[in-house]
Amino acid sequence: MKLGVESFTMMKDYWADFHGTMKKVSDLGLHYVEWLARISEEDHGMGLGFTPKEAVKIFDDYGMKLTGCIFVCQNSREIIFNYDEMQKIIDWYAEAGCTAIGLANDYFVDEEFMKRRMDAYNELGRRCGKAGMVWTYHNHFHEQQKINGKTVLDLMVEMTDPDTVGFDWDVYWGVRGLVDPVAFIKKVGSKIKRFHCKDFPFARLDYVNMAKELPEDELISWDNHNKFSAYKMVKPEDFIECGQGIIKWQEVVDAANEANIPYMFVEQDYTTYADKFESLAASRDYLLTLKGLEAK
Question: Does the reported pTM lie above 0.85?
Fold first, then answer.
């Protein structure tokens, strides 16, 4: 499995000095990048105005590879039903030689609403499959809420095509919903198409379960999600670099390799270092001591 980086960690740096940030990341030896894209009607790619060919050349120049994206946009709630718009995103990333695209977040309010969204996921997966890619969903912790006795997470697994629809699984956020990462990987296997890594500190162990803070009688939805935003409910001290917290990463990597998951991306929402590039280096140094994981 290849170790790379999720651009969210350095997003402000990319917007302030794109080429300078590219060089810093390349110098860290993190050559595989998953992009957090800001999709708009004017830009269906990285959000920086590049064509796919321009993006590929830039990444090549720095000895790096753009592997795909998770994206946000002003109309994340409805854009997945706009197949003309979605096809433009699929086409952009397919032309750039990527293997996965997906939503950075989503919300599900009832069974009918969820079925409609999962039907759209399957259609997008079909279109991605034709383009040589997969469609993914990036989890947080609210997927542990239940609809008619089943968690949203389990319903997503049941209702989507395992070949073309899956998870850009965030191990940390899963743990914050008390999802055992190794057991989950073994349960769904190749349904996980790639995943994110950061760690949770031992000192905050009493606060690990965020799902218990969610209301039992109110599903987090597109209408109320600001009230229960992950970044309103967490604290910076809830994050630590990989290898310094509670997650058993060698077991995660072993399970991921058994499932043939191709990429693992370091993503630090908050860091314990003043310099985020030092934070990335600390996680990199630990993770590359693990068997079955390489950055080349």
Answer: yes
